[in-house]
Amino acid sequence: MKPLLPLLGFLACSCAVAQSYRVGFEMDPSLQAPLEVRFSAEGLQGGESAEWSFGDGSQGRGAQVRHTYYRPGAYTVTVRVLGAAGQSRGHLQKALTVQSAGPERARLVVLPGLGTVRLGSAGSVIYAPSQPRFWLDGREVGPQRLALAPGVHQARVQLAGLTGTAESTVTFQSGPAQTSAAFDTEVLRLTNQARAQGWDCAARRAGGPALAPLRRDTRLEEAALGHALNMAYGKFFEHTSELDGSSASQRIRATGYAASATGENLAGGQETPAEVVKGWLHSPGHCANIMGDFTQLGAVYIRVAGSEYGHYWVQAFGRE
Length: 320
Hints:
Elements: E1 7-9, E2 11-18, E3 21-27, E4 35-42, E5 49-53, E6 59-61, E7 64-69, E8 73-82, E9 88-98, E10 109-112, E11 116-120, E12 133-136, E13 139-141, E14 146-147, E15 151-161, E16 164-174, E17 178-179, H1 181-197, E18 215-216, H2 218-234, H3 248-254, E19 261-268, H4 273-281, H5 284-290, E20 296-303, E21 311-319
Parallel strand pairs: 18-20
Antiparallel strand pairs: 1-19, 2-3, 3-4, 4-7, 5-6, 5-8, 8-9, 10-11, 11-14, 12-13, 12-15, 15-16, 17-20, 19-21, 20-21
Helix pairs in contact: 1-4, 2-3
Pfam family, one: CAP
Keywords: Signal
Organism: Deinococcus lacus
């Protein structure tokens, strides 16, 4: 039996524009390009709007906007709050330094399912907008979920960058697994029960502030199932995939989930939802994810005959 590392990551900054307005920034804590930043302006009144200048020649408008900085550098972000008639209500400038992530390189994320697979490129370091091209067993395919027969397969991704073409190839195995929708539902129920009870992670008992329930999300389930299958067939048990090198955040984003915060809990060997959720609640890091600032959850159980742990449990947490 192997309960394992929880994983959580996001970065947020909140800055005052004027007495009645606040501006927020959410981004990956690495601050490395290509860096997607979620900007938000809070406290806008009826008819007011926010106008953004991102410092790289691009602009946006709205209370919540996203922008990707493809190149490393120092940028000055300017936000102006405008009244209904276009008059200025206040403005703020904020410096943002985007770090280099090193040479351009491609990341291929492989998310197998039961008789299917999805290929993604989340985590690639390409300093320009680029559409990935995918191949599966020598045939060019799209990023949608694809039918897949059991066995050993080879996938490849290719992206055009500033310095040339980057590509990555992954060989992986797919096969059958026993699943349980009842187990998945019970893990979600027990997780939300702990949140409703205000589970105190330090004291390891209920009694703290209650939290809103997490909603089931099929994209998070897809990321969780893919990692569970890769661990079982790839003979590893880590948050960082030994198959394709992906992180939990990259797997979640590869499904199309536009995450502002992600987390992941893993466990192996436990045979019931009650056993696995109890173990997570009594482990500080896992408990912090269960009681974290998330809104959605993908909870997956699989059993693979002949695998190292037999039973695999994955929780993928997200907030968009």
